[in-house]
């Protein structure tokens, strides 16, 4: 049973990691845009 659910767990884990990475990247990008706007 654990062998059958393991791939699903891995898929869910990578999916949540991708979501967190996308959120972090967008926050970092917005922050960089704000810094660039202030220096100009």
Topology:
Layout: H1 2-39
Describe this structure in words.
- The chain is mostly helical.
- It has a domain at 14-40.
- The chain has one helix at residues 2-39.
- The protein starts with a helix and ends with a helix.
Descriptors:
mainly alpha
Brief overview, please?
With 40 residues, the chain is mostly helical.
- Total E-strand runs: 0
Q: Quick check: average pLDDT?
A: 81
Distance between the termini: 59 Å
Strand content: under 5%
Structural class: mainly alpha
What is the number of helical segments per DSSP (H or I, 4+ residues)? 1
What general outline do the C-alpha atoms trace?
rod-shaped
- Give the biggest sheet: none
Q: Over all CA atoms, what is the radius of gyration?
A: 17 Å
Model regions low in confidence, pLDDT < 50 over at least 5 residues = none
**What pattern of helices and strands is seen along the backbone?**
H
Oligomer: single chain
Please bin the fraction of helical residues: over 70%
